[in-house]
Design goal:
The chain is α/β, with parallel strands linked by helices. The protein has a single domain, classed as Ribonuclease Z/Hydroxyacylglutathione hydrolase-like (Metallo-beta-lactamase, Chain A, 4-Layer Sandwich). 23% of the residues lie in helices and 30% in strands. The protein contains seven helices and 14 strands. It has helices at 39-49, 69-75, 88-92, 94-97, 99-102, 171-182, 201-207; strands at residues 5-12, 17-24, 29-33, 52-57, 81-84, 112-114, 119-122, 125-131, 140-144, 149-153, 156-157, 160-161, 190-193, 199-200. The protein has a six-stranded mixed sheet, covered by helices on one side. The longest helix has 12 residues, at 171-182. The relative contact order is 0.14.
Length: 214
């Protein structure tokens, strides 16, 4: 196991969206997952650890997970941005990324389009993209098998699940995707959601009221 890989988190913006930084203490490279807001805080966290921002990975395109992206792109021109292939228009269209509902309409683009099951070799470790549509049609989780981490976005929460009443949402797709793609992971997998506290796959299999059959 690569003990140099660490995970840091902070809740950002009015929606208290969890942004995660995963860095390699040896190479000093770092990835930012879901920079929801307050880009200056993200940069402060990176600088405090002596990390260099290598890329941004998005679990989905909703405004509260991406609002700091333009700021980070200003700080590092050419910054790679990863997004699932089914989520491209969600990030691009203000009516889908919800910026038209909650503020100034913003259209954004990603330049690294990823697919379900694709393994990204970053930070000298492997990160698997797990496509779980339902909160949005191109929502993904990022699985660090070696570290036992799942960055889940708004797919799976502690004893809850993501909302499905926004554009491109689908309740049945979300529930089946969680059961078929996430609940097959080891029970001790740490789940880092887009909001609220972390949990584990095992705990959610036993206690999540949306997923446990009565």
């Amino acid at each position: 196991m690569n003990d140099n890989i660490i995970l840091l988190g902070a809740s950002l913006g009015q929606m208290q969206t969890n942004c995660y930084i995963v860095g390699n203490r040896q190479t000093k490279e770092a990835l930012v997952f879901d920079p929801g807001d307050e880009g200056f805080r993200v940069m402060e966290m990176l600088n405090k650890e002596g990390f260099k921002l290598s890329a941004v990975l998005l679990t989905h395109g909703h405004f509260d997970h991406v609002m700091a992206l333009p700021y980070l792109q200003e700080q590092k021109p050419g910054l790679p941005v990863y997004l699932h292939e089914d989520e491209v228009d969600v990030l691009r269209e203000p009516s889908l990324n919800l910026t038209s509902m909650f503020g100034e309409p913003i259209s954004m683009e990603a330049d690294h389009i990823i697919r379900d099951g694709q393994v990204l070799n970053l930070l000298e470790t492997e990160i698997t993209c797990i496509h779980v549509p339902g909160h949005t049609k191109g929502g993904v989780c990022y699985y660090f098998r070696e570290q036992g981490w799942l960055i889940a976005g708004d797919t799976l929460f502690r004893q809850s699940i993501g909302r499905t009443d926004f554009p491109t949402g689908d309740t049945e797709a979300l529930l089946s995707g969680i059961r078929e793609k996430l609940f097959v992971l080891p029970d001790d997998t740490e789940v880092y959601p887009g909001h609220m506290n972390s949990t584990t796959i095992g705990l959610e299999k036993r206690t999540n009221p949306f997923l446990v059959k009565p």
